[in-house]
Design goal:
Elements lengths: L7 H13 L8 H7 L1 H6 L5 H10 L4 H10 L11 H22 L5 E7 L6 H14 L5 E9 L2 H9 L1 E2 L1 H5 L7 H4 E4 L2 E4 L1 H4 L2 E5 L12 E6 L8 H12 L2 E9 L12 E6 L2 E6 L1
Parallel strand pairs: 1-2, 1-7, 2-6, 7-8
Antiparallel strand pairs: 3-5, 4-5, 8-10, 9-10
Length: 279
């Protein structure tokens, strides 16, 4: 495998930061070497500097998109960590539904908006949709939309398509529920139409200005801000608070904390989970 030489790490780390806001220190040089090795080979580049020059010279943006897809971490699984989905099922959904019924009554379907801010290949979005369907049961009483966003065009396209291998499903999806929410498509499995109908996906950089037509009742932003600088984490979570409903809930990764990052959010504890609400 080719190695970074001279000032190649500095060039690539600055470029990666400029397009993704992922902050890489020299100890992460191996990430560039391993994740860009295939692109190095595919473009016929003899060094990471040559690849860098080709990316900058590509006016179509295709190589830039491939760099984003390669660098961004896409580690995910269905019902990852389980605790956030227990929290959603046992606490947040019942709490939010009760609040909306008190506000607006039952004359119209109860509206809930959920955002998976770094959805990767979609497992978190579909796990959330399944949790909503199982918890609320009669979906005719609810107007639920779950948005998944990610910086990588490639993973957003895969998430939107909703097709997974048996190996991907074996990582977290209860096998006894497979027939209820997936249909077999050759050797792979596609998410059922009743679940996909609750979802939508789009490409988005979390550190560029964003706005939405509706505020979100629940925001998942798990295990993405850990790759940002402290200053960028502040920018991100400040922006997220502006698109949350007044009683909305933010769920971050189990090893993450907003201490010293946001003074607009209060931590709340429920069983094994911590979530945040606006002060």
């Amino acid at each position: 495998m080719n190695r970074l030489e001279g000032n190649e790490f500095s060039l690539w780390s600055s470029y990666v930061y400029s397009i993704t806001r992922i902050s890489l220190d020299p100890s992460k040089a191996y990430l560039i070497e391993t994740r860009l090795s295939a692109l190095l080979r595919d473009t016929g580049s003899r060094s990471y500097r040559e690849l860098f020059d080709k990316v900058l010279a590509d006016n179509t943006g295709a190589l830039k998109r491939k760099v984003i897809g390669a660098i961004t971490t896409n580690e995910t699984s269905f019902f990852r960590d389980t605790a956030p989905f227990d929290l959603l099922r046992q606490k947040l959904l019942p709490q939010l539904v009760d609040a909306r019924v008190k506000q607006f009554g039952r004359a119209k379907p109860v509206t809930l908006r959920i955002w998976s801010a770094a959805c990767s290949t979609g497992q978190e979005v579909y796990s959330t949709a399944i949790t909503c369907r199982e918890t609320l049961v009669d979906m005719s009483k609810y107007d639920i939309r779950i948005l998944g966003t990610d910086i990588s065009d490639k993973v957003v396209a895969q998430a939107s398509y909703g097709k997974y291998t048996k190996l991907e499903l074996d990582r977290g999806f209860p096998p006894e529920k497979l027939a209820a929410y997936f249909r077999q498509d050759g050797p792979d499995y596609k998410v059922s139409d009743q679940i996909r109908a609750l979802t939508s996906f789009r490409t988005m950089n979390l550190l560029e200005p964003f706005s939405f037509p509706n505020r979100f009742d629940v925001v998942f932003c798990r295990n993405v801000a850990i790759y940002f600088s402290e200053a960028d984490r502040r920018i991100l979570f400040d922006a997220i608070t502006r698109v949350m409903a007044p009683d909305g809930c933010l769920i971050i990764g189990s090893t993450e904390s907003l201490t010293g990052i946001s003074n607009r959010l209060d931590p709340k504890r429920y069983l094994r989970s911590i979530y945040y609400q606006l002060k």
